[in-house]
């Protein structure tokens, strides 16, 4: 059996426990929760599996070296002294990505540049040839993370962020990130055992992620490429075996997933994206203004949506959020309604008391993911029964 090694899956703030649960269910070992990341161990096949199958991960990193650093010369020397020939050919290409939390280093681009210089100089000195930088499709993507005086060097096995699933060709002005959408659906507790609705569906991201969760379809099957496919130890047979094994675990779905949007162009884009994802048999999208709709039938409905935040439209937003509350109250009995917003003032105008409120960060904005339970009939009658 191949040796296990440590990996780190990066995620969004507030999704760490979801990601840890996903990793455990996939079969990871030594799962440990950090801030915006979860570390774990597994073998090469599991690294492929994690990239294909995790819904709330942004990147899967493979740490290769950790050391203390005092200053930029120290950083350069220690990176120069690493055995880069084990990971890259002298004629290959590389890209460096850096994140820093340090008093000594204050600019991530500078750290990335210094790292690149050290790697390139090492190759030039030892082989007479030097790798080139390729920011789009490098043979090796290096991740540098400096936390105070500790420097972690990792290989980025994912390449492009894992939220780029490959099904979205059309987006709106403020599209929701696929990892965020999947995490919201999972946080809301939806398990595919009732109808699902996104009443302000935009380009259809929440709908697509909900359908993949319901059917247990791996989220990253449609990716064009993962960074590990350019590594020296790339094993295409193993990758295909992992892919088949994940596909064999898909399941049937017997309910409806519905999307509304009042913008005809959004509806057209959403339909394109759902078609690209091969999910049209599960999802129907209609051109509707949510505020003029009501729930069809008496079956339980699970709703997750991302209303506009309108950072500069405070007065209109208050009215808008009041409309959300009124529509839910009057038209959607028997519904668990969840939505995310960073407009915390407008949230007060919904006029309903949330039964849950989860603190998240959306595109660097403080956000709340709130749940409103709309009972059939009155709440009092519900408890009396």
Main sheet characteristics: 8 strands, mixed
**Beta-strand percent range:** 15-25%
Structural class determined from secondary elements: alpha/beta
Shape type = elongated
CATH architecture classification name of the largest domain: 3-Layer(aba) Sandwich
Order of helices and strands: EHEEHEHEHEEEHEHHEHEEHEHEEH
- Name the assembly state: single chain
Structure description:
The protein has 385 residues and is α/β, with parallel strands linked by helices. It has two domains: 5-156, VC0802-like (2-Layer Sandwich), CATH 3.30.2130; 178-216 and 251-381, 3-Layer(aba) Sandwich (Rossmann fold), CATH 3.40.50.150. The protein has helices at 16-26, 44-53, 72-80, 108-127, 178-187, 205-215, 236-247, 264-276, 314-331, 344-347, 379-384, and strands at residues 5-10, 29-33, 37-42, 59-68, 93-101, 132-133, 140-147, 150-156, 195-198, 257-261, 283-287, 301-305, 335-341, 356-362, 365-374. The strands form two sheets. Strands 2-3-1-4-8-7-5-6 form an eight-stranded mixed beta sheet. A seven-stranded mixed beta sheet has the order 11-10-9-12-13-15-14, with helices on one face. Helix 3 (72-80) packs across helix 4. The radius of gyration is 23 Å and the shape is elongated.
């Amino acid at each position: 059996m191949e040796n296990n090694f440590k990996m780190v899956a990066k995620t969004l703030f507030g999704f760490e426990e979801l990601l840890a649960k996903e990793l455990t269910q996939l079969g990871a070992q030594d799962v440990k929760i950090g801030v915006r990341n979860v570390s774990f161990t597994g073998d090469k096949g599991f690294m492929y599996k994690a990239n294909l199958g995790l819904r709330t991960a942004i990147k899967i990193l493979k740490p290769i070296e950790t050391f203390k650093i005092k200053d930029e010369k120290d950083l350069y020397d220690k990176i120069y002294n690493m055995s880069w020939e084990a990971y890259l050919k002298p004629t290959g290409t590389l890209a460096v990505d850096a994140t820093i939390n340090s008093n000594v280093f204050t600019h991530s681009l500078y750290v990335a540049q210094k790292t690149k210089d050290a790697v390139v100089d090492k190759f030039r000195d030892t082989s007479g040839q030097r790798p080139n930088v390729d920011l789009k499709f490098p043979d090796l993507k290096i991740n540098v993370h400096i936390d105070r005086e500790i420097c972690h060097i990792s290989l980025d096995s994912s390449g492009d962020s894992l939220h780029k699933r490959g099904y979205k060709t059309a987006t709106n002005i403020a599209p929701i990130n696929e990892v965020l959408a999947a995490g919201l659906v999972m946080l809301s507790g939806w398990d595919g055992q009732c109808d699902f609705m996104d009443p302000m569906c935009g380009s259809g991201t929440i709908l697509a992620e909900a359908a993949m969760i319901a059917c247990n379809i791996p989220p990253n099957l449609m990716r064009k490429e993962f960074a590990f496919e350019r590594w020296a130890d790339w094993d295409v047979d193993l990758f295909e075996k992992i892919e088949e094994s994940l596909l064999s675990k898909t399941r049937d779905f017997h309910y409806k997933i519905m999307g509304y949007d009042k913008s005809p162009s959004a509806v057209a884009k959403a339909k394109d994206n759902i078609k690209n994802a091969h999910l049209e048999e599960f999802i129907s999208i209609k051109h509707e203004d949510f505020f003029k709709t009501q729930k069809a039938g008496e079956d339980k409905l699970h709703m997750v949506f991302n209303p506009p935040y309108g950072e500069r439209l405070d007065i209109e937003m208050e009215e808008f959020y009041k409309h959300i509350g009124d529509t839910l109250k009057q038209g959607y009995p028997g519904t668990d309604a969840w939505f995310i917003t960073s407009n915390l003032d407008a949230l007060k105008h919904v006029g309903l008391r949330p039964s849950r409120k989860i603190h998240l960060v959306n595109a660097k904005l403080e956000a709340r993911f709130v749940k409103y339970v709309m009972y059939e009939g009155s709440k009092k009658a519900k408890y009396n029964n």
